[in-house]
Amino acid sequence: MKKRSGTFYLLLVPVLLWLVMLIVVPHLDMFFRSFRFETDEGAMIFSLNNYLAFFEDQIYWLTFVKTALYSIGVTFLAFVVTFPVAFYLTKVIAKKYSSFMVLLLLIPIWIGELVTIYGWMILLSDNGVINNFLINIGLIDTYLPMLYNNFSMTIGLLYMSMLFMIVPMMSALESLDDSLIEAASDLGASKWTIFYRIVIPYTTPGIASGGIIVFMLVIGDYVAPNILGGKSSLWFTEQIYNKFLATFNWNEGAAFGFLLLMLSSTIIWIALKLTGQKLEKVGS
Amino acid sequence: MKKLVLICTVAFMFIANGAVAKNTLRLLTWKGYAPAKLVKDFEAETGIDVKITYSNNEEMIAKLRATRGGGFDLAQPSQDRISFVQAKFPVYQPIDFSRVNTGQLTASMVEAVKKNSAYDGKAYAVPFCYGTTGMIVNQKMAPDAKDWSDLWNPKYAGKISYRLKRPLLIATAFGLGENPFALYNDINAYRALMKRVEKTLIDGKKLVKNYWTSGDTQVAIIKSGDAWVISGWDGKGWSLHATNPDIDFIAPKSGALGWIDTFAIPAKSKNLDAAYKWINFMLSPKNAAYFTNKEGYGTASADAIKYLNEDIKANFSRSFPPEVLDNIKWHPPVPEGFETIEAKVLDRIKAAK
């Protein structure tokens, strides 16, 4: 084996410290905690009860199913909304403009999620900018309820995660040789055929990695569902938060956290299988 | 290699410890409880730096529990959330009342807080301020909203909002004509009452515009006209009244819910001197009056009333004539296990259609 220099180890230490102390140790702690259960007598025992609680009470798994379905939906919407943008920025517009446009896309990320969400509240509220505008131009007479429902929650989640979909797709699209598209169109392929026979298969790894990032971000988000979502939008993360903060039941909270991790990983695994992707390829 | 890891670990711990300089006060409190002007005065007077972390009751307990009472020198939980926490996770230390200038405090309030925060014969809190949870009403749009039951009154469909937390469950019980505090020694009766509360709130859910989640969203939803009848804190209602006279705080007929927020000292407080100095500083009549004039909440400082603005005094007399004042339902300490029942109820209401 090649002998490493002292500098190599010196640089390795902070990375290892970071990984072990801030990621591995807390996760292990939470993992063991999730199996500890307080009996009625107050004794701590090893038990699967914390995990069983999830399946026994339908409110928990129903919330999880809702969270998962919405996350899949938002991920799909993010793809639909951002694919044309990514295509336009990489293939249609001149290179010198496109980097400026990408910068414009990045700006909302500089602002915190919370601030962005309050911005959406100003736009969507009953007496907000959009309603006022629509009433003033005479399109509607009474305000449309746009805030505090699933619509506003979806918008918030979509807005927050869109960029993470665009960037991987753009890098995939950039490496797509334009002559492939030209050749196809010379051979008489329609625009639609080019799109789903050439562009989509070629960019699938980018779409998949963007999709994974967006899905994980959305399913683990707390702020947007909590503030924009309104009265029925219980998100699974909110239940984990409640376990820790309202009932002080950290053991059950830890178990729910691991369930979220396992269930979301499973969904991603299934999605990768269905689309015939490999995680290594997507990750690169 | 091993040696290097060791050195780095030691260095890391050293840095982590050194970051907390000797002369700082790390304060864990609510937004608005440490006005910038008072912090500046305190720093100038004592030479102590004040580092503030904003939080709420639930997060305060979680934060202190995670470090077993470390990380902060002084916290400000509500009085009803101290003794059961102390019994389960020892995160606080008893108050040394010889270091608190109790002469400047309202004696009855000190006694009440001492009693309610007691654990194992020792008192764990000094009162700081008090206020009530009641209703904030747009009186032009909903002139008849007078009691908690108006939070599920079909008359105000789509214009109702409240904070889906435990005070709401208690308020709903009072609105149903029950006294939940009387059941604090009978967990089964309490569970049955909570079942009724749950049904009332789920049935009334279609009338609700939204559940507000923070002081800011509370103000936003009624100010913007999105709601007319909301649950809310008196100080917030009064400050809204100052900008829009249509909106005002109302003590519900079946009783506003009274809370007292306190000073409590975390078990591993590193700067006790600074903690006691801050307590005495904040409760001195002039400073306490500055806080009340600014935030609207009542103070435990006895002589602060001399320095209160006229409009602040008017708030109290307008919303709390004597008979209403006597009807305030003060939160008794929460018995252990009750929050678990309430959390489930809250979850089910939020998940309901």
From TrEMBL, chain A:
One of its GO terms (cellular component) is plasma membrane. Residues 64-271 form the ABC transmembrane type-1 domain. It is a multi-pass membrane protein. This is Spermidine/putrescine ABC transporter permease. It comes from the Bacteria. The chain crosses the membrane at residues 7-28, 68-89, 101-123, 151-173, 194-219, 253-272. InterPro entries: MetI-like. Its main location: membrane. GO terms for biological process: transmembrane transport. Keywords: Cell membrane, Membrane, Transmembrane, Transmembrane helix, Transport. The lineage of its organism: Bacteria, Pseudomonadati, Thermodesulfobacteriota, Desulfobulbia, Desulfobulbales. Belongs to the binding-protein-dependent transport system permease family. CysTW subfamily. It is found in: Cell membrane.
TrEMBL record, chain B:
Keywords: Signal. Residues 1-21 form the signal peptide. Coiled coil: none annotated. InterPro entries: SBP. This is Spermidine/putrescine-binding periplasmic protein 2. It comes from Desulfomarina profundi.
